From TrEMBL:
Pfam families: Fer4_15 (PF13459). InterPro entries: 3Fe4S_ferredoxin (IPR001080), 4Fe4S_Fe-S-bd (IPR017896), Fe-S_cluster_ET (IPR051269). Keywords: Electron transport, Iron, Iron-sulfur, Metal-binding, Transport. Ferredoxins are iron-sulfur proteins that transfer electrons in a wide variety of metabolic reactions. Residues 1-29 form the 4Fe-4S ferredoxin-type domain. This is Ferredoxin. GO terms for molecular function: electron transfer activity; iron ion binding; iron-sulfur cluster binding.
Amino acid sequence: MKVRVDTDLCAGFGICVGICPEVFELHDDGYATVLVSEVPPELEELVRRAADQCPTQAISLSGDSSD
Ligand code: SF4
């Protein structure tokens, strides 16, 4: 599964970073960036939860074959 953050949408709440700091990092510019291009399987659930809880729906997932 791949994950990306749309920096136009991200409002920098940092919720994703709180949920999965292995994958998301809050940039000095105030938006989140993704640290990995491919999400390790053991982190997919956390990344999905972060995407669900992002208030601006800035996190998009792709190549998710497990649903
Ligand atoms: S939860 Fe959403 S809005 Fe907040 S930092 Fe992460 S991507 Fe940005």
